[in-house]
Amino acid sequence: MTSSISTLTIKRPDDWHLHLRDGAMLRAVVADTARQFGRAIVMPNLTPPVTTTEAAQGYRSRIVQALQDSSLPASSFTPLMTLYLTDNTPADEIRKASGSGIVYGVKLYPAGATTNSDAGVTNLLRYCTGALEALQDTGLPLLVHGEVTDPDVDIFDREAVFIDRVMIPLRKAFPALKVVFEHLTTRQGVEYVRDAEGPTGATITAHHLLYNRNALFRGGVRPHWYCLPVLKRETHRQALLEAATSLSNRFFLGTDSAPHSRNAKENACGCAGCYTALHAMELYATAFDSVGRLDRLEAFASLNGPAFYGLPVNQDTLTLQRQAFDIPERVHPDQADLVPLAAGEQLPWSIVRG
Ligand code: DOR
Ligand code: ZN
Q1: Ligand 2 is a single-atom ion; what residues have CB below 5 A from it?
Q2: Coil, helix or strand for 12?
Q3: Does 1 fall in a domain?
Q4: CATH number at residue 186
Q5: Which of 80, 203, 319, 330 lies in disulfide reach of 352, CB 3.0 to 4.6 Å?
Q6: 72 lines ligand 1 (CB under 6 A)
Q7: Number of domains making up the chain
């Protein structure tokens, strides 16, 4: 169902869910994102996590410095910082973050759900009502990793169960809270976000649009396809593609690019996360093209996110062309040794590099 379009120019996109890490890894990856995106919502799951506005300010400076040390002009990319919610985050810290001008969201990691989530929330509606009230009052969005951590719940069902156990009660208690359901992976998630009352949005990754869970086991265990929430079965991928390419402005781009070194991925207990910052827009264009919907890529990648966050759309543009892009086997070997998602494969779309 691919279309005949061979060149596509869209307003410069933003990445509404990104892991940049710190130190050498940050210096390795930041330019990959800044080459494509105008802004990115930067996840706070460092060690230690970014739990205060002051820590977010320090992290932001390190990102800007890393950008300056790369070949790109620092002005070309704006990091939008986030705080990591804990059971003890004071309401005042939320108000401070909201007034800081550099923090754009507060991330809920259910404790134990994923990488560096140990300091996350154990019971949202029991321990975080003060913080949630402050979020609702200030209009700062709550960014949700929507999976329960109950070991009795099957890993493929954790998102659907989270909707019943957490999202529905949360929405009832805080009807005006801005909520972003991050990295949506299921049909149930799509239906929830589409129909929810109150200001609700969702990010969708390129890998969940392109692959189903078979990719994890193609000819053997494929650790570079392992992320959380884990890839789901084909019916869910179809629902995500329908949502991303629908006319709903509730769905927007968030890569969840989550770099881990090759050793940490190719390991007896490999880390969760796909490195997609390198070729994010090529991946998304391939997904949209697969259903003949390149005409809707701009809304998803460049318009819906700013509208939800109340920010202006980027002024400049990005151009993609139908020309093969060979995904390298390894990138940044000196600083980080990363294996990009689908390494060694070819994508039909490339960015026209300026
Ligand atoms: O796959 C993932 N990797 N999912 C997350 O939620 C966290 C991320 C990471 O930080 O590595
Ligand atoms: Zn993430």
Answers
A1: 256
A2: coil
A3: no
A4: 3.20.20.140
A5: 319
A6: no
A7: 1
Residue 278 lies in a domain: yes
pLDDT in tens, 221-253: 999 999 999 999 999 999 999 999 999 999 999
Q: Indicate the top mutation candidate among 227, 269, 339 to test ligand 1's pocket, ranked by most ligand atoms within 8 A of CB.
A: 227
- In whole angstroms, give the CA distance from residue 187 to residue 247: 17
Shortest-distance atom of ligand 1 to CA 109: 6
Q: Which domain holds residue 166?
A: 7-353
Contact predicate 193/168, CB 8 Å? no
Task: Please work out, in degrees rounded to the nearest 5, the angle formed at the alpha carbon of residue 223 by the alpha carbons of 221 and 224.
Answer: 130
Residue appearing with tokens 């781009």: 253
CA dihedral 125, 130, 135, 141 (to 10 degrees): -30
| C-alpha of residue 6 to centroid of ligand 1, in Å | 34
3-state secondary structure of 322: coil
Region 96-120: mean pLDDT is 93
Among the listed residues 229, 256, 324, 314, the one whose alpha carbon sits nearest the alpha carbon of residue 286: 324
**CB distance 115 to ligand 1 below 6 Å:** yes
